[in-house]
Amino acid sequence: YGQWKAINLTSYGEAIEFSTPGGQILIDQRNENRKWMYDQRHTPGVILLDDGGTPFNTSDDRCRKRNQWTDQNGNVLSPSQIMCIAQDMKNRMWIGTGTGILIIPAEVDFMNSNACHRIIIPRNDGTGLGDYLLGSEQVNCMVIDGGNRMWIGTENSGIYLIEDDTITVAHFTTDNSLLPSNTIQSMAIMPTTGELFIGTAKGIASYRSDASAPQEDLTNAYAFPNPVRPNYQGVITIAGLMENTAVNIIDESGNLVCKTRSYGGTAVWDGRIQ
Fold it and tell me: Are 198 and 204 in contact (CB under 8 A)?
């Protein structure tokens, strides 16, 4: 404890160039010995270091830097910029680049494979064709919410919320929200409440989403606002729930008026009878 150790990254005996470190180092959720980093611009690439649990002994280290991937359609990709990385609850690694997003599936061994996946959004125009998600957009930041949904902050197009890899749940811009700018520079999410804090080119904004981190039991479940006044126009939030909790809302006579499920630890109801 209290010691510093300089780490010289090498791969198979050759030094790894790490010229423009990005602003994140992620500890892999599956194995705390594995650290994910990225070289942003000058020599762009993603780096995985496995220190074997002995950070002061480099003899057992394994390290790999990749700046070229092959997607599910056989396309070879060499991004000129790596802007951000994130790991979701399914242990997939998301890589935000200057031209969209790459995903490294959990089953892919990064040390030995350059396979990646790209999300294809169907056009739904009868052609059977689709387009790569944000294929030409710079992705500056990404965060995962309690429902394992990905919030994606872009350079010019505001924020996208993606669920199940293919469904765009929401798209927030200056035209349809209180975002002060469509240039999203950073984001952070408060796990217990699902509140998203957004750093933009013109200031900071926040947004309370409908997902939060799931709880281990229902001991601290609560609803707000409480009470709900007759003239209230917003949503009613039930928080402090377990993952994928079934929520049944009944009226004073015992009639079921809404049936829904939680995203992570939160469920919402718009107050209408369904």
Answer: yes
CB neighbours of 216 closer than 8 A, spacing ≥ 6?
242
Q: Along the 274 residues of the chain, how does pLDDT read in single tens digits?
A: 678 888 888 887 789 988 899 888 999 999 999 999 999 988 999 999 999 998 888 888 899 999 999 999 999 999 999 999 999 989 999 999 999 999 999 999 999 999 999 988 877 777 767 888 888 899 999 999 888 889 999 999 999 998 877 667 889 999 999 999 999 999 999 887 888 999 999 999 998 877 777 788 888 888 888 888 888 877 888 888 888 888 888 888 888 888 888 877 888 888 887 7
Sheet holding 62-66, edge to edge: 26-27, 34-39, 45-50, 62-66
The Cα–Cα gap between 194 and 196 comes to 6
